[in-house]
Amino acid sequence: MCGIFGIYAHPSASQITHLGLYSLQHRGQESAGIVSIDENGLARAVKKMGLVSEGLSGTEVDTLNGAMAIGHTRYSTAGSSTLENAQPVLARFKGGHIALAHNGNIINATEMRRELEAQGSIFTSTMDSEVLVHRLARSPSDRPEDKLADALQGVEGAYSLLVVIGDTLLAARDPRGWRPLVIGRLGESTVIASETCALDIVGATYVREVAPGEIVAVSNGGALRSVMALPSAALKRCVFEYVYFSRPDSTIFGGSVDRARRALGRQLARECPAPTADFVFSVPDSSNSAALGFAEESQLPLELALIRNHYIGRTFLQPTQAGRDAKVKVKYNAVREVLNGKRVVMVDDSIVRGTTTRGLVSMVRAAGASEVHMRISSPPITGPCYYGIDTPSREELIAANLDTTQIAAHLGVDSLGYLSLEGMLSAVPDGPDGFCHACFSGDYPTPPPTDPEKLRFGCGC
Known about the structure:
Layout: E1 3-8, H1 13-22, E2 31-37, E3 43-49, H2 52-55, H3 58-62, E4 68-74, E5 89-93, E6 96-106, H4 109-118, H5 129-138, H6 144-152, E7 157-165, E8 168-173, E9 182-186, E10 189-193, H7 196-202, E11 205-209, E12 215-219, E13 223-227, E14 237-238, H8 240-245, E15 251-252, E16 255-256, H9 257-271, E17 279-282, H10 288-298, E18 306-308, H11 321-331, E19 332-334, H12 336-339, E20 343-348, H13 355-366, E21 371-376, H14 398-401, H15 404-411, E22 415-418, H16 421-427, E23 435-436, H17 438-441
Parallel strand pairs: 14-23, 17-20, 20-21, 21-22
Antiparallel strand pairs: 1-4, 1-10, 2-3, 2-4, 5-6, 6-7, 7-8, 8-12, 9-10, 9-11, 12-13, 15-16, 18-19
Helix pairs in contact: 1-7, 4-5, 5-6, 9-10, 11-13
């Protein structure tokens, strides 16, 4: 999972991209980068490890001249967290330069990489995204959008892309539409981003989504061209974007994330009520809206019982368990005056390994809660995701190895209730059809990768 942002025809393109990346920080916290292209066709890049605020200084961004830029915030799913894997990728070929920013995961990248290496290609990273750069450079087509269409033929998996070839900005979304990608306007400039919250922060107006299977090209002073050059496929938008990943102030897949999460919480309250509870609270921040929906439906008060340190990033995005454990200890604190002696409903959006949740339950118990009823606004996660989210192997997933009663005992809660798959899909906008829910149901839209090398040649985001 990553955040991507691009802008065409703006005199402060790099500065606008820098600002846009701040609003996409929740989609990736390991590295950030910007590539700009000036009027002479010169491409420059700045890429650093860490947060946007830590790695990309205003002074460095100011050196990136030009009216076109793309940016990226990275969260790796399999490729190592190193500077060589930071994006956007920038390469030069006989036709000039190629810059690429990728959100998603290409599941047949290993096979394509081996084929390219057999033909003499040399790779400098372990990202699947670099495969696309080589394929772009090898395309015999003249128009940039045709080059991208050539490069994407036979590519399996999830991708929302921003690509710069010469003086053209391109955007593409895989035919199943796994990851969001939206188009906006800022005066005479075109803005393309992972979520609408990035349009809002720069003052751009939402125009539309990039359609699944669509390639959009922007050049010639801002003229927008659209081609549907990719084979059609059944729509499989990632439902976990609504559950957890996207920001609540965004509109994705045509629906409000906040309203979707409130609906998930209301449905959860109908399916898994807690009639003896005194109040409801959320595990902030991603479950705030779901907890509000649960409280509204249950007619229970909503309290602030856990306080989050907002200077600590999302623990789900930490690449190691040690990193997750360390951040949980400093990320939250329980409010003893609210919890002491109370029977509480603790609402969270998901449980992956269970280690974070178990630590939070212990914290709530230590603050004096007499009963803790855990409610989860999604079904049990029982399988890994191959399409850009770092849900781990089945061996590490608590719900793949324990039933609900056993999980409740492991977490130390008085009761545990998950939202049903049917309830989740009926609650999200434009549901229940057209969503990927493989990590919950095991219904994978594509054959899972079987090559262990996939883990080494990991995801570009």
